[in-house]
């Protein structure tokens, strides 16, 4: 048994996670919270599909349907997909570059708790008079006229969560630039690290416009300003510009980490080096750059004019080129490879045709005259979900099965994993493929029911059956997690046997300091190169020495709690006398915690060399 583990103790697990700054535990907390919100968003989606299963249904009212639709989109984008991917970026990227942690562990924990409290704030609106109802994009013309406080919870909750995401993006950028292991040049970084790097740059530039928009909306709603009130000289269309200048890069903030995951999975289980690595890197950079050039393709029907529409149409078509490069590189990586169809590889194989279908319908919408017909129909719903579910969610499930043994020290059951994959993929195509045709037949999106005799009955029923199938697949995954956690059968460093990057060279799960000695990286697929030389571990780049580690802290939790409390005061300040006092108390908790942090002299702690050597003996014994 590990000496260091003994000294850390096995009690107070809850306190350990509340105060942790370890990137792996922070990543696990991102997974846990993200999957909680994923299940919540999934339940909301099921309610939507039950309501639309048959004509003239009254399973929920029109108002409740609007809330469900708004909360499904908001929850899945902001509080499920992105946090789960940030969890993988947190847990895996530092291991891939040979770092002992991220650059700013305290800020990493703060970003986590801001996300969690932001997500809770938006969802608590269900119990306080009504959830947001203006759509996940919350267009100002609808949001300004919303009668409940749901939109206020939306604006404040996403602001709080967005600050956490922005901190995470900056943290990852600094970590990758400054903390790579000796020998790891940029062009030797694994693709998942590259996509984390570009995604973090996108976060850095995309989230400030959203923050500005949410501030303006909050001030309009809560404090009587008139930024979006056309009658008072405001501009309601400017919300759409702000939102989509964030919202289109957000699509790539979601899909690029999934691309990185699939690059690792396909290369590993084809047992080949990734085909065209350099072109993959430059395609990723180009996608990140062009992602900021195309926001107004969401606004072709607003009336920007032919010139603006033409420019954004051409830019949208251009972004298909680097994406196409990636598709061909994945196919050519598999071509001639010795493919093992593990569960992660099955997800990768399902992803390529599914994502291509989403991409093709995207190019259809890039033609502005055609988009006038597609816009606000179920064709858009189908396209969006083919990209986000067929790309992002497939990537998340692939990563869950691929990296689970590295993070938790035991494998998920392969048979149950393949059942999950097959059920989910079938359910996904049943749900969304038919929606292309529903849209072309004229079914508008965001309608809570439809009339009998319009020819929409069969398509909607098939779609709802598909959604139920996806729900069953997620239940199978949860059963898999529980069963394998109870069995808890330990696995080796490289449980798949074909690991190529250096995270597979250390124990599963990794020790809290990751690498006893920083590894020497001798090329791309560094661990594979070592295995080709008959080694089972990375060549060390330094002798064993003392390791400096950061202390845990409860302060990130308290700062986030303070902003959570203050939000209630801001939201209710005009109706209740207690609003301003609660706002002041919340801000006092947050800023008081920051003050404590600035006054507290926290230099972390050292793990002595002797203790590391003793721990190694304990592990080997």
Compact overview of the structure:
With 621 residues, this protein is mostly helical.
Salient structural properties:
mainly alpha, 621 residues, Cyt_c_oxase-like_su1_dom, Cyt_c_Oxase_su1_BS, two-stranded antiparallel ribbon, 21 helices, Cytochrome C Oxidase, Chain A, membrane, 2 strands, single chain
Termini separation = 8 Å
Report the mean per-residue pLDDT as an integer: 93
The whole-angstrom Rg is: 25 Å
Low-confidence stretches: 1-7
Going by CATH, the architecture would be: Up-down Bundle
Give the biggest beta sheet: 2 strands, antiparallel
Oligomer: single chain
Number of domains: 1
What is the ordering of alpha helices and beta strands? Answer: HHHHHHHHHHHHHHHHHHEHHEH
Number of strands: 2
User: What is the CATH fold-level name?
Assistant: Cytochrome C Oxidase, Chain A
Indicate the proportion of strand residues: under 5%
Membrane topology: Multi-pass membrane protein
Keywords: Cell membrane, Copper, Electron transport, Heme, Iron, Membrane, Metal-binding, Respiratory chain, Translocase, Transmembrane, Transmembrane helix, Transport
Subcellular location: Cell membrane; Membrane
InterPro entries: Cyt_c_oxase-like_su1_dom (IPR023616), Cyt_c_oxase-like_su1_sf (IPR036927), Cyt_C_Oxase_1 (IPR000883), Cyt_c_Oxase_su1_BS (IPR023615), Cyt_c_oxidase_su1_bac (IPR014241)
